[in-house]
Specification:
heterodimer, A: about 120 residues, mainly beta, 5-stranded antiparallel beta sheet, about 0% helix, B: about 120 residues, 6-stranded mixed beta sheet, 4-stranded antiparallel beta sheet, 10 strands, about 45% strand
Chain lengths: ~120, ~120
């Protein structure tokens, strides 16, 4: 069945260091991979996404890479700041008809950025 | 403009009671999703509505769970005979019309925290 594995479950870095979170998906028909940030008690917010026709996408300090062959995708945060502390979720969405809109989420990574 | 809204924000109910959770999607969004987030866990897909198509109910955990979407807008998630394991945050999301370039992004509501005692 469809499954997304996310690692690590917790990550602690010093301010200014980089953070990398990795996800693996099982459904080779997946074609859309968003990353959400969820601060404590808040709703998930999309921070970056990538579609299967590109291998990398960057937005300021955040980048996502996709390896379709290995079915891996990763989130990279550079020059981390304390406000980056949150839970990050990766997800995958299956290519198909209009009736396949569901996202399959990873279990989440709690990122702590120490000042 | 207004985002996705959900009500109530918190709901405490006794085991065995029925509950209804409401979601108001962003105006004009034809796709609506329900997810469940248990404490410290990821988001678990429950059900998906897209326009007039038959909903994808593949994530509903049991027949105690049902959802409907009236007039292509507001949705209600109903849990009958609630159990303690139903305690979680129930999140609703919506996205624009399928086929547009923006249709992939899902916008989440603030969630309803359900506690079953």
């Amino acid at each position: 069945g469809e499954n997304v594995e996310q690692h690590p479950s917790t990550l602690s870095v010093q301010e200014g260091d980089s953070a990398v979170i990795k996800c693996t998906y099982s459904d080779s028909a997946s074609n859309y991979f968003p990353w959400y940030k969820q601060e404590l008690g808040k709703r998930p917010q999309l921070i970056i996404d990538i579609r299967s026709n590109v291998g990398e996408k960057k937005d300021q300090r955040i980048a996502v890479t996709l390896n379709k062959t290995a079915k891996h995708f990763s989130l990279h945060i550079t020059e981390t700041q304390p406000e980056d502390s949150a839970v990050y979720f990766c997800a995958a969405r299956r290519r198909g008809s209009s009736n396949t809109g569901k996202l399959i989420f990873g279990q989440g990574t709690t990122l702590q950025v120490k000042p | 403009g207004a985002g996705v809204s959900q009500s109530p924000s918190n709901k405490v109910t006794e085991k065995g009671k029925d509950v209804e959770l409401r979601c108001d999607p962003i105006s004009g969004h034809t796709a609506l999703y329900w997810y469940r987030q248990s404490l410290g866990q990821g988001l678990e897909f429950l059900i998906y509505f897209q326009g007039n198509s038959a909903p994808d109910k593949s994530g509903l955990p049991s027949d105690r769970f049902s959802a409907e979407r009236t007039g292509g807008s507001v949705s209600t998630l109903t849990i009958q005979r609630t159990q303690q394991e139903d305690s979680a945050v129930y999140l609703c999301a919506s996205s624009p019309t399928w086929g547009t370039t923006a249709s992939y992004e899902q916008y989440f509501g603030p969630g309803t925290r359900l506690t079953v005692t």
